[in-house]
Structures are given as structure tokens and as C-alpha cells.
Amino acid sequence: MEQIFPTAEKMAAALRAGEVTSAELTDEAIARIERDDKAINAVCVPDFDRARAAARRADQARLHGEDRPLLGIPVTVKESYNVVGMPTTWGLPQHRDHVPAEDAVQVSRLKAAGAVVLGKTNVPLGLQDIQSFNEIYGITNNPWDHARTPGGSSGGSAAALASGFCALSIGSDLAGSLRTPAHFCGIHAHKPTLGLAATRGMVAPPAPPLPVELDLAVVGPMARSARDLTLLLDVMAGPDPLTFGVAHDLTLPPARHERLGDFRVLVVDEHPLIPTGSAVRAGVNRVADALVDGGAHVERHSPLLPDLTEAATLYTQLLFSGSVARFPVEAYEQLRSRAAGLSADDRSLDAARLRGMVLSHRDWIEVNNRRELHRHGWRQLFAEFDAVVCPITPTPAFPHDHNPDPRERRIDIDGVEHPYFDQLVWAGVATMPGLPATAVPTGRSPEGLPVGVQLIGPMFEDRTPLRLAELLEDEIGGFQPPK
């Protein structure tokens, strides 16, 4: 079988054919981590002894005729998921010794599907950055350029996949935390429809793992191929057995089309609030050209597209409204004073962030009402189109920037500096209304860095952008290992 960075699909086929054992795959992965991860620092909490034991059990199960979806496949798990016997810290130093008593629901599903968990991957402090570094585990580097970030907050998982340390990984996404690392590291990721995959046990310590329905945030799969995303999503999808799972069974509708030429696609590469860098624009154009060459119906503009400026403002307010819930009263009052001093005409994203932090319940309900209007607008758009192609962030991976005050950081877009957090607006296009979005690699920048785009699909029709991702992978290629 192919020995260099095989997909999970190929691993599973080789395991079924008896060409390799899970123990061999696991030993190969561990050897690669031990050899190469010193420079990357992706796998922050290894669990090799238990992984080898799980691999032996998987091989025995296969000898006895079992065949589960991920039986014997080596995987990693984002550090923020609870795993029995391993710390869950979210990079918070005060919780470095927190060890949960039960697995997160998604970790349980991985294990039930037969996956071999190699360990946990690094995250930023509190999962609140577009990079992946913290005081406990240090800095994760981009496999393509160690001076650059792999993204965040699922940056450790993306770096691990790009480095060949695992076949699959699970992450989470609130502000592009699945899609941005995929874009920066040249892999695939899928942000599911809001609520599609249960999140219990993906919780900041020391909070209990309750079946809470989160706003904006989702959990989802990461892989080196689009087909592997579908394989892992089928394991992850479904309601929490403690709540909706008591009464609901999940049946995702099939992809709208199977042939590239049948897809109707809207391509968007400009945002009113931030420019698109030339490397990312070129990546969008490569996808657009492949769609046209494949016979798809492609449009560059549509009056049905919900207003991107208002969408970014609503997303920013919703995102930051939850970030100050546990702030000390004094700090919160300072924010309220600053927000009260804003001009009524100030419609900048900085102002939206500040207003979001101090939204009253009444104001939050109004913002949420506006969100529902946007969701209705997306439903109308997806009556005419099957998917929307757009950037994930304005640039490829940027150099490490660990300024402790993110407000002072800047993102360089073709030589012009912009506020650091403004780059989140593209992630918010899908996150604010809760739509599924698949990140796919499209090639390299002139500097040799990976560039990706996102394929946004209709709500709960996750198989449509995933199928489009598979077809595009066949047309323009997919993951390539770092050089």
C-alpha cells in the first residue's frame, strides 16, 4: 500500500484486504511523530501506550470478522475534547491538571467506530486565537513554514494531518477554527450545519460536560481528502443521546448532484469590509475555472446574496457577546463605558466587537432576529444555487504574532495592514447563519504556502458541499505533503 501519508479511505481498504495491520499503521504514525514533531509541536499530549493497545484490539476484532467504519485507523483529537485519562486544559495554566471522568460524545463515537486515538493536538489559550500556542504546551508551527502559524484554534490537528501524524482528526469551529487551519496547512475540513453533531464534552475546564446547545460553535472532521471528511462526518453526525437523540434519528439528504456539470455555483471573492489578498483571489479563481471547465453553471454576482456588511456586523456582535460572560464586574463596566462613548455613526468592526461585548438581552434578541432574516435570505439563494465558493481568510498563513494584546496585532494583506480580527469576516459568512462549509485546498501561493477556499452549502445539506469538494479534488488535486 501507499506508505507516505495515505488517506483513511486507503488505510481502511488495506486493512480489509489484509495488506497491513492496525498495529503497523499505529507504529508508523508514532515513529513519524517521535521523529518529526519536535519541529512542529502538533501532538501536545501523546497517548502511545493506549494507542498501541487499541490497535491490537482492532486487529483482533478484524480477525473475528468485525468491520467498523474506522476500525484500526490512527486519529488525533483536539486538546479541547474530554478524553478519560488525559488532561483537558484548553491551554489554561490554572487547569493544567484537569483530567475529566468521561469521554466527550465525539470521542466515544470515534472509539465505537474503531479508531485508534494517538493523542491530543495543540490549541490556543481558551481556543480564542487564529494561532495555536499556550503556556502549557508551547507553540505549534506550520509544517510548510515553521515561522508561520498553522492557524487556530484547531491548528494542532491541521499541522498533525499535514505532517502525516494521523489519518483523521476532530476539531471545532466558532470563528473558522476548522477552516482556517485547513486553509493554512493545505488539508480538508468541514464545518457542519449548526447542531448537526453533538458537542457534549467539548467544554472548557472545569465546567461539567452538559448537553448544551451552543450558539455559532460546532464540532467537525479534518482530513487529507474530501472523501475522508464524509467518512468521519458520518461517524460524528447525530444528536446527543441525552437530549434530541432520545426521539430523533438523523438522515442527511443526499448531495443535490453527483456530476460537476450539474452544480449551480455562486463565486464570491470580494468583501466590503476587507480586501482579498492576491494569493487567495488566485485560489478562488482556480476553483472557478475548474467549475467552468467541468460544465458547472457559475455566476460571480447575485442579488440574492445576503448583505455581507450587515452579516459581518451581526456575526461580530454574536461572537463577542459570549466572550465576556465571566469577566469581572469592574472590567465589564469599563467595556460598557467605552461602548457608550462610541459615535452612533461608527459602524467599524472594532465598534461592533465592543458593542457585542455589552449587548443587553433585549439587544441580543434583536440581533438574533436579524440573523433569522439572513437565514431566510440564504434559503432563497439556495433555491437558485447549490453552493457558494468564497475565501476562508484574506491571506495564506501569516508569521507568528504573539503580542499579548490582540488589538495591537495587524494582518498584512498585499503590503497593507488591517486589524487582526477583521480577517474573521469570511469565516462568519457561514458561521453566523449556521450553514455547512467545506474547506478545500486549491494550490500554492507564489511563496509556496497552501491556499484554500470554502464551499458553503444549504443548511443540513452537508453532503452537497462535501460532494462538490470531492469532485473538485478530482479536478484540481487536493492535499500535497509539505516540501
TrEMBL record:
Pfam families assigned to the protein according to its UniProt record, in alphabetical order: Amidase
EC annotation from Swiss-Prot or TrEMBL: 3.5.1.4
**A GO MF label:** amidase activity
What top-level class of enzyme does the UniProt entry assign? hydrolase
> Do you know which InterPro entries this protein is assigned to?
Amidase_CS, Amidase_dom, AS_sf, FAAH2
The residues covered by the Amidase domain are 24-464
Which keywords are on file for this protein?
Hydrolase
Q: Does the keyword Hydrolase apply?
A: yes
Q: What name does this protein carry?
A: Amidase
Q: Which source organism does the UniProt entry give?
A: Streptomyces smyrnaeus
